[in-house]
Amino acid sequence: MPDSAAAFPSMDPVLALIDGREDELVALTQDLIRIPTINPPGDFYRPCAELIGERLRKRGFEVTYLRAEGTPGDSDRYPRINVVARWESGRAGPCVHFNSHIDVVEPGAGWTVDPFGGVLKDGRVYGRGACDMKGGLAASMIAIEALIDSGVELPGAIEISGTADEESGGYGGVAWLAERGWFSPPRVDHVIIPEPLNVDRVCIGHRGVWWAEIETKGRIAHGSMPFLGDSAIRHMSAVLEKFEHELYPALGERHSQMPVAPDGARTSSLNINSLHGGQGEDFLGLPAPLVADSCRMIIDRRFLIEESLEDVKGEVTDLLETLVRDRPGFTYGLRELFAVAPTMADRDGPVATATAEAIRRVLGRPAQFICSPGTYDQKHVDRIGKLKDCIAYGPGVLDLAHQPDEWVGVDDMIASAKVMALAAAALLARQG
């Protein structure tokens, strides 16, 4: 693959333009943060999409707004609005697409600054979504605007999208668009997702995930005579005991060859997201004296590329069936909530190598190739769009995502914008 410096006379004007637009990059990041696109429920998607679309329309992009009607959470009050902006060079060539999700999780407690104020302090922009991933979205926009404004003759096309619902699975965003061909060849050839995985890392994939609800059943009775009932909570305690003494030790012995970061995520994992049993207590007064006839647990199982989804499901089912045989009165229900297989792009593929070379040129050190412990929208580009040349790269420290006082560094945004501009130029030249 030709280096971008060889493909074009010089990329120095592009890099200089990005340096000169630091204030603009900060202001754009602040504007995006100040739109509180909290998901759930899916607030303010339209104004955020229009902020992106109107800016790019004025710079020569063809802009399309798409509502993912009928997807989970979509309603007239909370429409799942996506924006896709496309710039055509007029010369034959590939398409490079930068995809960012516009939704953020709720702020939660513990903030020392306004979570939607976009505060700039000590070289950092603070706010919910600063790191995950409005800083990356802003950096990609500035990168591509500078690349176009530099006057470098580019073949092919460039797309930038702002999509909904990544934090809740992406069904109203990238999944819906991918089902309709927006992330498939020949429309798109290469995808970069500016997720916050550190400015010197190329993320080529992610672990798999299986979310499920386990319900144990019991028989209701008076709390003063529990011997007349059958406690579903006690049955669930038996499930937890099996997890602690059998499943967790087994998962801890499994290690992946995927370069998952941090190192602790190179093993299989299981998190208990929630546990609910008996009558709810969200009322005034004392709870009713009842034996619980139902107990529900949500599990979050993250698995490795060396494991199959069928085996992941099977080991939980086998554990539950053992209790059916061995524990009197034990009955259960098992309901799948969400499942995604692991995915991993070729680290020697075009988008990974172009981004890694751009990191080397901008930062002066080799790129690290990693995989993410959690999933992101690459799963839909790969599985539904059938587009394998997709990676994640963007500014921000992954550990800050979803935390109080979330921030993104201004220097990292500038550096990542340069990397994205160089990578896009090299990918366009590669087939142009």
Question: What would you note in describing this structure?
Answer:
A hairpin with a 2-residue loop joins strand 4 (120-121) and strand 5 (124-126). The chain folds into two domains: 4-206 and 342-431, 3-Layer(aba) Sandwich (Aminopeptidase); 208-339, Alpha-Beta Plaits (2-Layer Sandwich), CATH 3.30.70. The chain is 34% helix and 22% strand. The strands form four sheets. Strands 1-2-6-3-7-15 form a six-stranded mixed beta sheet. A four-stranded antiparallel beta sheet has the order 10-11-9-12, with helices on one face. The chain has a three-stranded antiparallel beta sheet with strand order 4-5-16. It contains eleven helices and 16 strands. It has helices at 4-7, 12-20, 22-33, 45-57, 130-149, 174-179, 232-252, 309-326, 350-363, 378-383, 410-431, and strands spanning 62-67, 81-88, 95-101, 120-121, 124-126, 157-163, 190-193, 201-206, 208-217, 269-277, 294-303, 332-340, 343-344, 368-372, 390-392, 407-409. It is an alpha/beta fold and 432 residues long.
C-alpha Rg (nearest Å): 24 Å
**How many beta-strand elements?**
16
The second-level CATH architecture of the largest domain is 3-Layer(aba) Sandwich
Tally of separate domains: 2
Strand order of the largest sheet: 1-2-6-3-7-15
Low-confidence stretches: 1-9
The description of the largest β-sheet is:
6 strands, mixed
The helix tally amounts to 11
Per CATH, the class of the largest domain reads Alpha Beta
- The helix content is 25-40%
**What's the helix-strand series?**
HHHHEEEEEHEHEEEHEEHEEHEHEEH
CATH superfamily of the largest domain: Zn peptidases
